[in-house]
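Molecular record:
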Amino acid sequence: MELVFISTAFVSGYILMRCHLPPLVGFLLAGFALHAMGYQSTPVITQLAELGVTLLLFTIGLKLDVKTLFAKEIWFGATAHNVLTTGFFTLALMGLKALSLPMLSSMGLSEMLLLGFALSFSSTVFAIKALQDKGELNATYGTLAIGMLIMQDIFAVIFLTATSGKTPDLTALLLFALPLLKPVLGKLLDKAGHGEMLVLYAIFLALVAGAGLFGAVGIKPDLGALILGMLLASHPRASEMAKSLFNIKELFLICFFLNIGLSEQPTWQSFSFALILMLLLPIKGILYYWVVSGFRYRVRTALFTSLTLFNFSEFGLIVGGLAYQTGLMPGPILVSIAIAVSLSFIFSAPLNTFSNALYTWASRWLPERAPDKLHTSEQPINLGDASILVLGMGRIGTGAYDELATTHQQPIVGIDTREESVAHHQQEGRQVILGDATDPDFWSRAVSNGNVSLILLAMPNSQANTLALEEIRQTPFKGKVAAIAKYQDELEQLKALGVDEAFNIYQEAGSGFARHVRERFSSSAD
């Protein structure tokens, strides 16, 4: 049976990908289609789906700077949105009950408050997947969205712990000693190598030391995976560990999306109520925009954050399932939540895919603050006398920057979306500033003396380089643009967009290695 699931998911995902939509929408549709044909989820699919979510939270932890959670826009913004959205949905449900909606006839105020709380959350799985597909996980709005989602996860853990009737064991207090193990865990990571032991160590940390340990003492297992990842986030090899899990995590998450479609049997009544919930969803998105904008972020940042979080969460199913088990929620309502979650994914996916076009249209109507009134991370970008720009200061961008600094006398400026990366490069003596080159407003925010003659697109994600190139071609810039890519089709896409030079990083690495060896051996012979 699992072979049928995998085949259907592949066909559906491939078709949606060719339609320029995220494959996860195809996986959802595959689940619904399989359910309509009489298939049910299996223990294997369910277990793999749970593993996928656990590994996802672990990799989030590996990339999370804990300090970001203490930013006012994160903890207060997430709390304010949760309270406002819960209140809105509760009032809307009360109004629908007053209009004699049959689905709500047996629900009291406390049950509606619980349902409103469940609907206030956004999907961590969907948002992270959307950000990864766009290559904007470290963009300003990506950091905001992830921070707010993690705060929601914390709210979820508190709720589940308080309502599950299961009190954590006294041994749970020992978990406060986990930070003491950080040096040991870091040393083991240093010794884990770069192959299968690195992957196995990551799985051990996520599933055993994290989820297993927390579950054993009566605390939500997924929280343990997140915290174990956070403990190692500052380690130099944390990014490598996250990348080593990427393909396994993606495979398991396919099962997660399939499982949503396979889990419930829709009825016309439950489907109708799900459509009503979808009609209320835009208010949730507007509240996200209002909260983020209130912290003096630009229109683009507030809008993109809202679009990333513009969905219902799989956590709604968890809350609904718990309420159903305790008699606080009717069964048809739980089915409606499942349908609404799935529909919100299907509706939200194309919005995120075409987010730049939506912003271009919406920016005509949404008022923008004056530059001096914006958040510090949104201030104008001063490029000074730079002649060369390196967009993306990862390993490749850094290597290109250092090589050009050695062989050229023109001023060079690096641009990166990560604050910690910018700070590190500045400490190393490089001229690097914070910025998002995929932002349509990036070049309008940039202030320079007009000396830029060469731009290097060195971001690790090909889509990010493509988006940046599209933005460059819409500016008066007349200099040269060079870009990197990992695969031949990405290389051809960049050339089709008019890049002056495009380089396959794997091929160039081999050529560079050969040149280095030839030069070294030639000098030895001399």
Summary: The longest strand covers residues 480-485. The longest helix spans residues 72-98. Residues 136 and 312 are 21 Å apart (CA to CA).
